[in-house]
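Translate structure to sequence.
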Protein backbone atom coordinates (compact mmCIF):
# COMPACT_ATOMS: atom_id res chain seq x y z
CA UNK A 1 0.00 0.00 0.00
CA UNK A 2 1.40 3.38 -1.04
CA UNK A 3 1.21 6.48 1.14
CA UNK A 4 -1.54 7.92 -1.08
CA UNK A 5 -3.60 4.72 -0.74
CA UNK A 6 -3.77 5.18 3.03
CA UNK A 7 -6.12 8.12 2.57
CA UNK A 8 -8.52 6.45 0.15
CA UNK A 9 -12.10 5.92 1.33
CA UNK A 10 -14.29 2.99 0.23
CA UNK A 11 -16.60 3.51 -2.75
CA UNK A 12 -19.78 5.25 -1.68
CA UNK A 13 -18.17 6.64 1.51
CA UNK A 14 -17.11 10.28 1.76
CA UNK A 15 -15.94 12.99 4.12
CA UNK A 16 -18.39 15.86 4.44
CA UNK A 17 -16.41 19.09 4.56
CA UNK A 18 -17.18 22.76 5.17
CA UNK A 19 -19.38 24.48 4.15
CA UNK A 20 -21.54 21.46 3.18
CA UNK A 21 -21.22 19.92 6.64
CA UNK A 22 -22.60 23.10 8.19
CA UNK A 23 -25.49 23.17 5.72
CA UNK A 24 -26.37 19.53 6.48
CA UNK A 25 -26.28 20.13 10.23
CA UNK A 26 -28.40 23.27 9.88
CA UNK A 27 -31.07 21.39 7.91
CA UNK A 28 -30.97 18.44 10.32
CA UNK A 29 -31.68 20.79 13.20
CA UNK A 30 -34.49 22.56 11.35
CA UNK A 31 -36.14 19.28 10.33
CA UNK A 32 -35.92 17.90 13.87
CA UNK A 33 -37.23 21.19 15.28
CA UNK A 34 -40.17 20.99 12.85
CA UNK A 35 -40.94 17.41 13.90
CA UNK A 36 -40.78 18.32 17.59
CA UNK A 37 -43.14 21.26 17.04
CA UNK A 38 -45.64 18.68 15.76
CA UNK A 39 -45.28 16.74 19.02
CA UNK A 40 -42.68 14.15 17.98
CA UNK A 41 -40.12 13.33 20.67
CA UNK A 42 -36.47 12.90 19.73
CA UNK A 43 -34.81 9.49 20.20
CA UNK A 44 -31.21 8.49 19.45
CA UNK A 45 -31.03 4.74 18.72
CA UNK A 46 -27.67 2.93 18.89
CA UNK A 47 -25.57 2.52 15.77
CA UNK A 48 -25.32 -1.28 16.26
CA UNK A 49 -27.75 -3.88 17.58
CA UNK A 50 -28.16 -7.64 17.59
CA UNK A 51 -29.34 -8.89 14.22
CA UNK A 52 -32.54 -10.38 15.62
CA UNK A 53 -33.66 -6.90 16.65
CA UNK A 54 -32.60 -5.10 13.47
CA UNK A 55 -34.30 -7.57 11.13
CA UNK A 56 -37.50 -8.22 13.07
CA UNK A 57 -40.45 -7.99 10.70
CA UNK A 58 -38.52 -6.23 7.96
CA UNK A 59 -38.02 -8.89 5.30
CA UNK A 60 -34.97 -9.96 3.32
CA UNK A 61 -34.03 -6.66 1.67
CA UNK A 62 -32.83 -5.02 4.86
CA UNK A 63 -30.66 -8.02 5.73
CA UNK A 64 -28.83 -7.69 2.40
CA UNK A 65 -28.13 -4.00 3.14
CA UNK A 66 -26.73 -4.60 6.64
CA UNK A 67 -23.07 -4.94 7.58
CA UNK A 68 -22.63 -7.74 10.13
CA UNK A 69 -20.00 -8.23 12.84
CA UNK A 70 -19.39 -10.42 15.87
CA UNK A 71 -19.87 -9.02 19.37
CA UNK A 72 -16.57 -9.71 21.19
CA UNK A 73 -18.39 -9.77 24.57
CA UNK A 74 -21.11 -12.31 23.81
CA UNK A 75 -20.14 -13.97 20.54
CA UNK A 76 -23.54 -13.02 19.08
CA UNK A 77 -23.94 -11.49 15.64
CA UNK A 78 -24.58 -7.77 15.48
CA UNK A 79 -25.41 -5.42 12.64
CA UNK A 80 -24.77 -1.77 11.81
CA UNK A 81 -28.18 -0.22 11.22
CA UNK A 82 -29.22 0.22 7.60
CA UNK A 83 -32.59 1.72 8.52
CA UNK A 84 -33.78 3.38 11.74
CA UNK A 85 -37.49 2.54 11.47
CA UNK A 86 -37.20 -0.93 13.08
CA UNK A 87 -35.22 0.64 15.92
CA UNK A 88 -38.00 3.15 16.55
CA UNK A 89 -40.52 0.29 16.54
CA UNK A 90 -38.44 -1.58 19.14
CA UNK A 91 -38.20 1.54 21.31
CA UNK A 92 -41.97 2.03 21.18
CA UNK A 93 -42.86 -1.62 21.81
CA UNK A 94 -40.24 -2.59 24.36
CA UNK A 95 -38.23 0.33 25.79
CA UNK A 96 -40.95 2.95 26.21
CA UNK A 97 -44.05 0.75 26.40
CA UNK A 98 -46.37 3.76 26.60
CA UNK A 99 -50.13 3.46 26.25
CA UNK A 100 -51.97 5.48 23.64
CA UNK A 101 -50.27 7.47 20.89
CA UNK A 102 -46.48 7.70 20.75
CA UNK A 103 -44.72 10.05 18.34
CA UNK A 104 -40.96 9.66 17.81
CA UNK A 105 -38.43 11.40 15.56
CA UNK A 106 -34.75 10.70 14.87
CA UNK A 107 -31.80 11.65 12.69
CA UNK A 108 -28.47 9.92 12.20
CA UNK A 109 -26.17 8.01 9.89
CA UNK A 110 -27.14 4.62 8.54
CA UNK A 111 -24.79 2.29 6.67
CA UNK A 112 -25.55 0.27 3.52
CA UNK A 113 -23.54 -2.63 2.15
CA UNK A 114 -24.24 -1.43 -1.39
CA UNK A 115 -25.24 1.97 -2.78
CA UNK A 116 -28.73 2.19 -4.26
CA UNK A 117 -27.16 3.38 -7.51
CA UNK A 118 -23.71 4.35 -8.79
CA UNK A 119 -23.79 7.92 -7.43
CA UNK A 120 -25.51 7.17 -4.12
CA UNK A 121 -23.81 7.28 -0.74
CA UNK A 122 -23.51 4.19 1.42
CA UNK A 123 -23.63 6.39 4.53
CA UNK A 124 -26.79 8.48 4.14
CA UNK A 125 -28.03 10.66 6.99
CA UNK A 126 -31.54 9.41 7.67
CA UNK A 127 -34.14 11.56 9.38
CA UNK A 128 -37.68 10.50 10.05
CA UNK A 129 -40.78 10.34 12.20
CA UNK A 130 -42.85 7.40 13.40
CA UNK A 131 -46.37 7.50 14.85
CA UNK A 132 -47.44 4.49 16.94
CA UNK A 133 -50.80 3.52 18.38
CA UNK A 134 -53.23 4.76 15.72
CA UNK A 135 -54.63 2.85 12.76
CA UNK A 136 -56.68 5.84 11.66
CA UNK A 137 -56.60 7.63 8.35
CA UNK A 138 -55.93 10.82 10.32
CA UNK A 139 -52.58 9.36 11.46
CA UNK A 140 -51.59 8.60 7.86
CA UNK A 141 -52.54 12.14 6.86
CA UNK A 142 -50.52 13.63 9.71
CA UNK A 143 -47.38 11.73 8.79
CA UNK A 144 -47.61 12.59 5.08
CA UNK A 145 -48.33 16.24 5.89
CA UNK A 146 -45.34 16.41 8.23
CA UNK A 147 -43.06 14.92 5.55
CA UNK A 148 -44.25 17.51 3.02
CA UNK A 149 -43.68 20.24 5.61
CA UNK A 150 -40.12 18.97 6.16
CA UNK A 151 -39.53 19.08 2.39
CA UNK A 152 -40.85 22.63 2.39
CA UNK A 153 -38.36 23.52 5.15
CA UNK A 154 -35.61 22.01 3.00
CA UNK A 155 -36.55 24.28 0.10
CA UNK A 156 -37.47 21.48 -2.31
CA UNK A 157 -38.99 22.86 -5.52
CA UNK A 158 -41.89 21.24 -7.37
CA UNK A 159 -42.43 18.21 -5.19
CA UNK A 160 -44.50 15.34 -6.62
CA UNK A 161 -46.07 12.79 -4.27
CA UNK A 162 -47.06 9.30 -5.38
CA UNK A 163 -49.62 7.41 -3.29
CA UNK A 164 -50.27 3.66 -3.31
CA UNK A 165 -51.72 0.97 -1.07
CA UNK A 166 -49.92 -2.29 -0.26
CA UNK A 167 -53.25 -3.99 0.54
CA UNK A 168 -54.09 -3.98 -3.17
CA UNK A 169 -50.99 -5.99 -4.03
CA UNK A 170 -51.30 -8.22 -0.96
CA UNK A 171 -54.93 -9.08 -1.70
CA UNK A 172 -54.30 -9.91 -5.34
CA UNK A 173 -51.12 -11.91 -4.73
CA UNK A 174 -52.88 -13.86 -1.97
CA UNK A 175 -55.86 -14.60 -4.19
CA UNK A 176 -53.60 -15.78 -7.02
CA UNK A 177 -51.90 -18.37 -4.76
CA UNK A 178 -48.53 -18.27 -6.50
CA UNK A 179 -45.65 -20.24 -5.02
CA UNK A 180 -43.12 -18.40 -2.87
CA UNK A 181 -40.49 -17.94 -5.60
CA UNK A 182 -42.98 -16.62 -8.13
CA UNK A 183 -44.50 -14.25 -5.59
CA UNK A 184 -41.02 -12.92 -4.73
CA UNK A 185 -40.21 -12.42 -8.43
CA UNK A 186 -43.49 -10.57 -8.99
CA UNK A 187 -42.89 -8.31 -5.99
CA UNK A 188 -39.36 -7.52 -7.19
CA UNK A 189 -40.56 -6.75 -10.72
CA UNK A 190 -43.32 -4.47 -9.45
CA UNK A 191 -40.96 -2.65 -7.09
CA UNK A 192 -38.64 -2.00 -10.05
CA UNK A 193 -41.61 -1.11 -12.27
CA UNK A 194 -40.48 -3.68 -14.83
CA UNK A 195 -43.57 -4.21 -17.00
CA UNK A 196 -41.81 -6.66 -19.39
CA UNK A 197 -40.90 -8.95 -16.47
CA UNK A 198 -44.45 -8.81 -15.15
CA UNK A 199 -45.75 -9.69 -18.61
CA UNK A 200 -43.48 -12.72 -18.61
CA UNK A 201 -44.43 -13.77 -15.08
CA UNK A 202 -48.17 -13.11 -15.41
CA UNK A 203 -48.76 -13.48 -19.13
CA UNK A 204 -50.51 -16.85 -18.79
CA UNK A 205 -53.04 -15.65 -16.22
CA UNK A 206 -56.60 -15.67 -17.63
CA UNK A 207 -58.53 -12.41 -18.00
CA UNK A 208 -60.27 -11.36 -14.80
CA UNK A 209 -57.94 -13.39 -12.59
CA UNK A 210 -55.92 -11.85 -9.77
CA UNK A 211 -52.70 -12.28 -11.76
CA UNK A 212 -54.15 -10.55 -14.82
CA UNK A 213 -55.34 -7.67 -12.64
CA UNK A 214 -51.85 -7.27 -11.21
CA UNK A 215 -50.44 -7.15 -14.73
CA UNK A 216 -52.91 -4.45 -15.75
CA UNK A 217 -52.38 -2.37 -12.61
CA UNK A 218 -48.65 -2.25 -13.31
CA UNK A 219 -49.46 -0.09 -16.33
CA UNK A 220 -51.65 2.32 -14.37
CA UNK A 221 -50.08 5.48 -12.94
CA UNK A 222 -50.90 9.15 -13.10
CA UNK A 223 -53.30 11.68 -11.61
CA UNK A 224 -56.79 11.39 -10.19
CA UNK A 225 -58.10 9.86 -13.41
CA UNK A 226 -56.18 6.61 -12.82
CA UNK A 227 -58.32 5.81 -9.77
CA UNK A 228 -61.27 5.42 -12.14
CA UNK A 229 -59.19 3.13 -14.35
CA UNK A 230 -58.07 1.10 -11.32
CA UNK A 231 -61.69 0.68 -10.23
CA UNK A 232 -62.52 -0.77 -13.65
CA UNK A 233 -59.60 -3.21 -13.43
CA UNK A 234 -60.61 -4.26 -9.90
CA UNK A 235 -64.36 -4.35 -10.61
CA UNK A 236 -65.94 -7.29 -8.81
CA UNK A 237 -62.93 -7.81 -6.57
CA UNK A 238 -63.00 -7.91 -2.77
CA UNK A 239 -64.24 -5.12 -0.50
CA UNK A 240 -60.66 -4.74 0.77
CA UNK A 241 -59.55 -3.47 -2.63
CA UNK A 242 -62.46 -1.03 -2.93
CA UNK A 243 -61.74 0.30 0.57
CA UNK A 244 -58.07 0.82 -0.34
CA UNK A 245 -58.97 2.80 -3.46
CA UNK A 246 -61.47 4.88 -1.49
CA UNK A 247 -58.82 5.71 1.09
CA UNK A 248 -56.34 6.76 -1.60
CA UNK A 249 -58.94 9.12 -3.06
CA UNK A 250 -59.81 10.71 0.29
CA UNK A 251 -56.19 11.19 1.35
CA UNK A 252 -55.22 12.74 -2.00
CA UNK A 253 -58.16 15.13 -1.84
CA UNK A 254 -57.25 16.38 1.64
CA UNK A 255 -53.55 16.73 0.81
CA UNK A 256 -54.33 18.70 -2.35
CA UNK A 257 -56.32 21.10 -0.20
CA UNK A 258 -53.47 21.64 2.29
CA UNK A 259 -50.51 21.53 -0.13
CA UNK A 260 -51.65 23.14 -3.39
CA UNK A 261 -48.02 23.57 -4.52
CA UNK A 262 -47.47 19.77 -4.53
CA UNK A 263 -48.56 17.60 -7.46
CA UNK A 264 -50.14 14.25 -6.60
CA UNK A 265 -50.44 10.95 -8.40
CA UNK A 266 -51.04 7.24 -7.91
CA UNK A 267 -48.60 4.46 -8.68
CA UNK A 268 -49.78 0.92 -8.00
CA UNK A 269 -46.22 -0.39 -8.42
CA UNK A 270 -45.01 1.74 -5.47
CA UNK A 271 -43.76 -1.15 -3.32
CA UNK A 272 -40.22 0.03 -2.65
CA UNK A 273 -38.95 -0.12 0.89
CA UNK A 274 -37.96 -2.99 3.13
CA UNK A 275 -41.06 -5.16 2.68
CA UNK A 276 -42.54 -4.22 6.03
CA UNK A 277 -45.30 -1.87 4.86
CA UNK A 278 -48.90 -3.06 5.21
CA UNK A 279 -51.19 -0.22 4.10
CA UNK A 280 -51.03 3.25 2.58
CA UNK A 281 -47.53 4.03 1.22
CA UNK A 282 -46.11 7.17 -0.37
CA UNK A 283 -42.98 8.53 -2.03
CA UNK A 284 -41.93 12.10 -2.88
CA UNK A 285 -39.94 13.07 -5.97
CA UNK A 286 -38.47 16.20 -7.57
CA UNK A 287 -37.85 16.68 -11.32
CA UNK A 288 -34.49 15.49 -12.59
CA UNK A 289 -33.84 13.16 -9.65
CA UNK A 290 -34.81 9.53 -10.18
CA UNK A 291 -34.83 8.38 -6.55
CA UNK A 292 -37.50 9.21 -4.01
CA UNK A 293 -36.37 12.06 -1.76
CA UNK A 294 -38.74 10.96 0.99
CA UNK A 295 -40.88 7.88 1.49
CA UNK A 296 -42.89 6.04 4.07
CA UNK A 297 -46.16 4.37 4.88
CA UNK A 298 -48.08 2.18 7.27
CA UNK A 299 -46.37 -0.82 8.86
CA UNK A 300 -48.64 -2.43 11.44
CA UNK A 301 -46.79 -5.75 11.72
CA UNK A 302 -43.38 -4.96 13.22
CA UNK A 303 -44.47 -4.23 16.79
CA UNK A 304 -46.01 -7.68 17.25
CA UNK A 305 -42.60 -9.25 16.63
CA UNK A 306 -41.31 -7.29 19.61
CA UNK A 307 -44.12 -8.67 21.77
CA UNK A 308 -46.46 -5.68 21.53
CA UNK A 309 -48.73 -5.32 18.52
CA UNK A 310 -49.09 -1.63 17.62
CA UNK A 311 -50.38 0.08 14.47
CA UNK A 312 -47.69 2.35 13.07
CA UNK A 313 -46.95 4.75 10.24
CA UNK A 314 -43.97 6.95 9.44
CA UNK A 315 -41.57 8.40 6.89
CA UNK A 316 -37.85 8.85 6.31
CA UNK A 317 -35.69 11.39 4.45
CA UNK A 318 -32.03 11.58 3.40
CA UNK A 319 -30.78 14.90 4.79
CA UNK A 320 -27.65 14.85 2.61
CA UNK A 321 -29.73 14.51 -0.56
CA UNK A 322 -32.13 17.26 0.54
CA UNK A 323 -29.28 19.74 0.96
CA UNK A 324 -28.04 18.97 -2.56
CA UNK A 325 -31.48 19.20 -4.20
CA UNK A 326 -33.07 21.98 -2.17
CA UNK A 327 -33.14 25.69 -2.88
CA UNK A 328 -32.76 26.58 0.75
CA UNK A 329 -31.34 30.01 1.51
CA UNK A 330 -27.90 29.56 3.04
CA UNK A 331 -27.18 32.07 5.76
CA UNK A 332 -23.43 32.58 5.69
CA UNK A 333 -22.18 33.82 9.06
CA UNK A 334 -19.00 35.84 9.12
CA UNK A 335 -16.71 35.87 12.14
CA UNK A 336 -14.96 38.48 14.27
CA UNK A 337 -11.16 38.37 14.34
CA UNK A 338 -9.54 38.82 17.77
CA UNK A 339 -5.82 39.54 18.19
CA UNK A 340 -3.46 37.13 19.93
CA UNK A 341 -2.33 39.46 22.69
CA UNK A 342 -2.97 38.78 26.37
CA UNK A 343 -5.39 41.27 27.90
CA UNK A 344 -8.07 40.70 30.57
CA UNK A 345 -10.41 43.22 28.94
CA UNK A 346 -9.94 41.46 25.59
CA UNK A 347 -10.85 38.13 27.16
CA UNK A 348 -14.06 39.61 28.55
CA UNK A 349 -14.93 41.20 25.19
CA UNK A 350 -14.41 37.86 23.38
CA UNK A 351 -16.52 35.96 25.94
CA UNK A 352 -19.36 38.47 25.56
CA UNK A 353 -19.25 38.37 21.75
CA UNK A 354 -19.28 34.56 21.69
CA UNK A 355 -22.74 34.56 23.28
CA UNK A 356 -24.16 35.54 19.90
CA UNK A 357 -21.34 35.63 17.37
CA UNK A 358 -18.40 33.67 15.98
CA UNK A 359 -15.03 34.87 17.24
CA UNK A 360 -11.74 33.50 15.91
CA UNK A 361 -8.82 34.12 18.24
CA UNK A 362 -5.51 34.64 16.48
CA UNK A 363 -2.60 32.40 17.45
CA UNK A 364 1.11 33.28 17.29
CA UNK A 365 1.42 31.55 13.91
CA UNK A 366 -1.25 33.88 12.47
CA UNK A 367 1.10 36.87 12.41
CA UNK A 368 0.54 38.70 9.12
CA UNK A 369 -2.56 36.70 8.15
CA UNK A 370 -5.39 38.61 6.49
CA UNK A 371 -8.46 37.93 8.71
CA UNK A 372 -10.79 37.94 5.69
CA UNK A 373 -9.12 34.73 4.47
CA UNK A 374 -10.32 33.08 7.70
CA UNK A 375 -13.96 33.99 7.12
CA UNK A 376 -13.93 37.24 9.12
CA UNK A 377 -15.57 40.52 8.16
CA UNK A 378 -14.92 42.36 11.46
CA UNK A 379 -12.15 42.60 14.02
CA UNK A 380 -11.68 43.58 17.64
CA UNK A 381 -9.52 46.69 18.03
CA UNK A 382 -8.67 48.76 21.10
CA UNK A 383 -9.88 52.33 21.03
CA UNK A 384 -9.83 54.74 23.96
CA UNK A 385 -8.91 51.92 26.32
CA UNK A 386 -11.84 49.72 25.24
CA UNK A 387 -12.14 46.79 22.85
CA UNK A 388 -14.66 47.50 20.09
CA UNK A 389 -15.78 45.66 16.95
CA UNK A 390 -14.72 47.32 13.71
CA UNK A 391 -15.55 46.39 10.13
CA UNK A 392 -12.61 45.07 8.12
CA UNK A 393 -11.48 47.16 5.16
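Result:
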Amino acid sequence: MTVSDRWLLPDGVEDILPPLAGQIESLRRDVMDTCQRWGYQLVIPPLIEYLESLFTGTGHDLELQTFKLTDQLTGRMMGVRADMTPQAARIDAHTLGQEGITRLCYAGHVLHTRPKHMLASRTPIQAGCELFGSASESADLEVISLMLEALRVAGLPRVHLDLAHVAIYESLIGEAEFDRNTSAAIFDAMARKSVPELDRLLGDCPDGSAGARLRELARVSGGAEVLTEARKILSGASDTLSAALDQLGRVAEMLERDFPEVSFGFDFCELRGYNYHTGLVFAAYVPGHGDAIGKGGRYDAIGSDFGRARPATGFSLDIRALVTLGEREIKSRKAVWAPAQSDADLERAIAELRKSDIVIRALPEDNGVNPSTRGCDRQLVKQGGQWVVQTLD
